[in-house]
Design goal:
Layout lengths: L13 H8 L3 H33 L15 E7 L2 E10 L2 E9 L5
Antiparallel strand pairs: 1-2, 2-3
InterPro entries: DUF6788
Protein name: DUF6788 domain-containing protein
Organism: Natrinema salsiterrestre
Length: 107
């Protein structure tokens, strides 16, 4: 271990370096752990966003509206003795639906 202070990365903003210079070793270790966890979280979010974008770019049915994700499925709902098609998909903990059209009884 060197007796000289470490050289900060060239792209680290000066104000961050100045703030960190005043921190205790314990607080610097806490900051380092938090920064590592935050970096992993943001990388994971970026990967998930990219995967979702790729999923949306996968083959979309021709009749799928632009505001409906490609992972949506068609479900049938019965309302007042009439049957209707709906696009349905999950967004987080919620299930979303969008009207597609009436069920044709001749099908």
């Amino acid at each position: 271990m060197s007796y000289e202070p470490p050289t900060p990365p060239a792209d680290l903003p000066t104000d961050v370096i100045d703030i960190l210079d005043d921190y205790s070793p314990e607080l610097l270790r806490d900051v380092a752990r938090y920064a590592e966890d935050l970096a992993e979280y943001r990388e994971r979010e970026a990967r998930l966003a990219e995967a979702e974008k790729e999923d949306e770019n996968d083959e979309r049915p021709d009749n799928l509206p632009d505001d409906v994700p490609s992972k949506a499925t068609i479900t049938i709902k019965e309302i007042n003795d009439n049957r209707y098609y709906y696009w349905q998909w999950r967004e987080g903990d919620r299930i979303r639906s969008k009207y597609k059209g009436p069920v044709n009884p001749d099908d």
